[in-house]
Amino acid sequence: MEPASTPSSSTMAWSTLPTWPLILFGIIEPLLLVWAYIISILDPHRFYTMQVPHSPVEPSDLQPQALVLTLQMGNVLLLVAALAVVCCWTPRPATSRWYLVAVALADYGHIYGTYAGMGRDAFCDVRGWNDAVWGSVGASAFLNVFRWLTVLGVFGGLTEEGGGAGMVVDKKRV
């Protein structure tokens, strides 16, 4: 009688990303996104007004449409955090690669949206940026560079199924 599960000689990694990109995109970035989500839900007015520094908005000025969009933006942040975890902690290299490409391209729209809202002068005045702008522009630009470096294999290639970072577990015969 054969045991219920017999370990095979092959192993499977939890991720095909090299270690540093896995830590950055599979742990740090999702935690930051969840934190931004929490801020947007706990204090949507502050989250909304922080998007453009030096442009105060009174509590009565927060229109219902702005509140809806602010809360929906928070929800999108939570969604992207979940997608980051799923797409970075996968044994399929194509999933991680195309996720990084898609999010790298979205970074440009994210940065442009901040630029368009702030205006050229405020956008170029880096000393006047607040935490929200540093997150929207600075963090997005930083992550964008590392996304492309990861896709290009600078930290090591995205390995085929069975290799990569993360805890290695034995594949079981079914």
UniProtKB/TrEMBL annotation:
Top-level division of the source organism's lineage: Eukaryota
Assigned keywords, A-Z: Membrane, Transmembrane, Transmembrane helix
Keyword Transmembrane part of the UniProt annotation: yes
Keyword Transmembrane: yes
Location of the DUF7704 domain: 15-156
Pfam families, alphabetized: DUF7704 (PF24803)
Protein name: DUF7704 domain-containing protein
Organism: Phialemonium atrogriseum
